[in-house]
Structures are given as structure tokens and as C-alpha cells.
């Protein structure tokens, strides 16, 4: 795999840019309206609650990454926690799939903002067509090499963090610091709706795992992986909160929910005028495109490492190049299929289910087998599990009422993943030398 990974090719700044790039691309642009639909007028605080849950979860990833920095990130954690078992392989594949789902989410968000900026209908074939096009663009950037991705990630992250922060401050100022998003946002309100909305808020922060999955390539990884994770989560929390209040100061709740696929653009016009609207659309396009590039970069490396660890099957299908070149192709093909067949709400729901289940399995495995070795505190791990479980249950209950088919799709897909991995590992058992703990 020496040709696939380049030690010290990602600086601390690159890693922070990569994490914030994935988070901001998906979080504030794609999910604000959907969170408002579930949480009602309290939707800005759902981002704070999501950040708290994410902070507990991040402790596990920081401890593991500091001890064992790896380009396989999540796969490495799961294998060390469970050994080369069905649980480890299945959960790792769920994580990879949730990252691919994130790519389709961001790609559709790009398409929605572009069409809104052009004042064109968004219920046509153009949304999936544009989405597939921007996924292909992300693939082209990624095949050009790590330094291109790192340099572009830093530039794009600086532009969008600065630009979105400026948008939030300007919109709040124009709105007179009043909060217009009151009233009923959808069919679900109250405490249950707020807790359910936290699943999407957590999804808005899951991009920090992008850093974990590039651990072996980050300079001074035993120190910088953890630092990059903490800094990127902190930056995104401030940006999300500022923008959520800015959107709430510009639009009533029903309009935020109605325009949930392009909420920032909708909020920009009453607050900042037509020029502000176009600038916000341009900013959204930059944010989503760069987030997609960073996500493709990370998931292809994770899939390549899982292949190297013999946890998933691999076929090059006659393609030239190394394994990472092949996994880049797999990544963009699956993301393209998802963006064609699912809308934003369903894509986000599927990603939340996959990620929360995987996250619970990560914490349980570390709690059971690794907490003393890596210095993780048991109460933090159990709190992370409990918070994830409560949010997952509330979100599943809400989705069962509103869209039961997506719950069935998620459960079926997860079952297929674990059955597939069980059969694969029985037919081609991987070496067990990585595993030092009973599963």
C-alpha cells in the first residue's frame, strides 16, 4: 500500500480544513431546514445539543487516533476493538456508506442552490444530473493527488468559513437581532421532535471522522489528529450557531421549512437584498463543492485500508492503478446512484441511521476491550452510547410516523451489510494478527 499513502502529506491546517470542509458543506447548508422542521423554533439549539453529543463521541476517536493513527481510521478502531469479525467489518462498511451518503447529500445540495440561484425549477431531472456532474468533478480533483486536495481544501475552507460567518453576522445585523422563526414548523414539535432533530445535527458534525480516516498521512499524527478534530468541531459549532440564528432572524419558521433544501439562500434575500442572495448562492456552491472533494478524499482511503485489512472484497474490474484509484471510482459511482434515486430528506435520514449505529458499536468496542490501553474513561464512553441511543430511538420513531419506508430501507440495508460481511469473512477469513482483545 506504499503507493497509496504518503506519510506527512497532510498538515495540521490541511486536516482542519478537511474536517470543517466536510462538516460545513453538509451541515449548515443541507440540514438547517430539516432540523427546523423537527425541532421547531428551538432549531438553533439543536446544533448546540448535537455538538455536545459529538464532543462525547469525539473523545473516543481522539484517544484511539492518538494511540493508533491510521489511514484506515474507523476500520482500524473497529478491528482493534472487535478483531477481524463480522461486527467490525459490518460497522466499518456502515461508516464508509454513511460517508458516501454524505457525498450524495452535499451533491444534491449543490444542485438545489445552483438551480435556486438561476431561478429554475428544482423538481426536474436537472437536480440529479447536476449532482452527478459535481461528484465527477470531485473525482477529477482527487485523482490529481493529495497536495491538490490539501491546498484546495485549505483555500475553500477559508473562503466558506469566512464567507458564511460574514453572512451570519450581516443577516443578524439586518434583521435587527430579532428572531422571526416562531410558530409551528411541521408535523413534529415538542421535546420528541427536538431530540429527533439532534440526529441530523450530529450528522452535521460527523465530518470530523474525515480527519480520523487520514491519520497516517497527517504530520505528527499522535498529536495533530486529536488537535484537528477538536478545532474543527469548535469552529463548526460557532459557525452553525451564528448562521442558524441569522436564518431565524430573516425568515419565519414555515418558510425555513418550505425552503429547507436551500434555506441560506432564501434567508439572504430579505436580509441582504438581491446581491446578498447571489453572493450566498455562490458561497453555498463553493462550500458544497469543497466539502464533496474532502469527503471523496477520505472515504476512498478508508475503503482502500479496509481492502488492505481483508475486511471487504475488492475487484479492479480491469481498471489500471492502485487500490485507492479503484475505491475512488467505487465511491463516486455509489454516491451518484444515491443522489439519483433519493431526495435530500431521505439521504440525510439514511446517513443518520448508519452513522449512529456505527458510532454506538465503536464506543462499545472501545469500552469493552480498549479503554484502559488508550486511556479512555468508561463513563464518557457509556454516556456517548446512551446519548446516541436516545437520539437514534427518537429519530427512528419520528421517521416511522412520517416516512416508514426509509426506516425499513435503513434496517434492511444494515442487515444486508452485516450478512454480506459474515458470508465474506467465512469464505475468506482475514489474518487475526491485528487483534489483541477478545471479541
From TrEMBL:
Q: Does the keyword Cytoplasm apply?
A: no
Q: What is this protein called?
A: Amino acid transporter
The domain of life for this entry's organism is Bacteria
The organism is Salipiger profundus
Q: Which UniProt keywords apply?
A: Cell membrane, Membrane, Transmembrane, Transmembrane helix
- The transmembrane residues are 12-36, 42-62, 82-105, 125-142, 149-174, 194-216, 228-247, 277-300, 321-341, 347-367, 379-400, 406-427
Q: How does it sit in the membrane?
A: Multi-pass membrane protein
Location of the protein in the cell? Cell membrane
Q: What's a Gene Ontology MF term here?
A: transmembrane transporter activity
What InterPro entries does this protein's entry cite?
AA/rel_permease1, APC_superfamily
- Provide an example Pfam family for this protein: AA_permease_2
Where's it mainly located? membrane
A GO term from the CC aspect? plasma membrane
Amino acid at each position: 500500500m506504499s503507493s497509496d499513502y504518503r506519510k506527512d502529506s497532510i498538515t495540521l491546517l490541511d486536516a482542519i480544513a478537511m474536517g470543517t470542509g466536510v462538516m460545513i458543506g453538509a451541515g449548515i447548508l443541507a440540514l438547517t431546514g430539516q432540523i427546523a422542521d423537527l425541532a421547531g423554533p428551538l432549531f438553533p439549539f439543536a446544533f448546540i445539543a448535537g455538538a455536545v453529543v459529538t464532543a462525547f463521541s469525539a473523545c473516543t476517536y481522539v484517544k484511539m487516533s492518538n494511540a493508533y493513527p491510521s489511514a484506515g481510521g474507523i476500520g482500524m478502531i473497529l478491528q482493534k476493538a472487535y478483531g477481524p469479525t463480522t461486527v467490525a467489518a459490518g460497522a466499518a462498511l456502515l461508516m464508509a456508506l454513511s460517508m458516501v451518503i454524505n457525498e450524495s447529500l452535499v451533491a444534491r445540495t449543490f444542485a438545489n442552490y445552483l438551480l435556486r440561484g438561476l431561478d429554475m425549477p428544482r423538481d426536474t431531472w436537472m437536480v440529479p444530473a447536476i449532482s452527478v456532474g459535481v461528484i465527477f468533478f470531485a473525482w477529477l480533483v482527487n485523482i490529481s493527488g493529495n497536495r491538490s486536495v490539501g491546498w484546495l481544501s485549505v483555500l475553500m475552507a477559508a473562503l466558506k468559513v469566512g464567507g458564511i460567518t460574514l453572512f451570519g453576522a450581516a443577516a443578524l445585523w439586518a434583521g435587527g437581532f430579532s428572531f422571526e422563526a416562531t410558530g409551528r414548523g411541521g408535523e413534529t414539535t415538542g421535546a420528541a421532535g427536538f431530540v429527533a432533530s439532534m440526529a441530523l445535527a450530529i450528522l452535521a458534525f460527523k465530518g470530523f471522522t474525515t480527519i480520523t480516516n487520514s491519520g497516517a498521512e497527517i504530520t505528527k499524527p499522535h498529536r495533530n489528529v486529536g488537535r484537528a478534530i477538536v478545532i474543527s468541531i469548535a469552529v463548526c459549532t460557532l459557525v452553525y450557531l451564528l448562521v442558524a440564528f441569522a436564518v431565524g432572524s430573516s425568515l419565519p419558521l414555515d418558510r425555513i421549512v418550505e425552503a429547507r433544501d436551500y434555506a441560506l439562500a432564501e434567508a439572504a434575500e430579505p436580509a441582504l437584498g438581491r446581491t446578498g442572495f447571489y453572493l450566498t448562492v455562490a458561497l453555498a456552491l463553493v462550500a458544497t463543492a469543497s466539502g464533496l472533494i474532502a469527503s471523496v478524499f477520505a472515504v476512498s482511503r478508508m475503503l482502500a485500508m479496509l481492502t488492505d485489512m481483508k475486511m471487504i472484497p475488492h475487484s479492479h474490474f480491469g481498471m489500471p492503478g492502485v487500490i485507492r484509484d479503484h475505491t475512488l471510482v467505487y465511491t463516486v459511482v455509489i454516491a451518484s446512484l444515491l443522489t439519483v434515486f433519493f431526495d435530500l430528506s431521505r439521504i440525510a435520514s439514511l446517513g443518520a441511521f448508519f452513522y449512529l449505529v456505527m458510532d454506538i458499536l465503536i464506543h462499545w468496542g472501545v469500552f469493552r476491550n480498549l479503554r484502559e490501553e488508550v486511556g479512555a474513561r468508561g463513563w464518557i464512553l457509556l454516556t456517548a452510547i446512551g446519548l446516541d441511543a436516545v437520539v437514534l430511538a427518537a429519530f427512528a420513531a419520528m421517521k416511522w410516523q412520517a416516512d416508514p419506508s426509509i426506516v425499513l430501507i435503513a434496517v434492511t440495508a444494515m442487515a444486508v451489510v452485516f450478512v454480506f460481511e459474515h458470508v465474506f469473512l467465512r469464505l475468506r477469513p482475514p489474518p487475526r494478527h491485528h487483534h489483541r482483545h477478545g471479541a
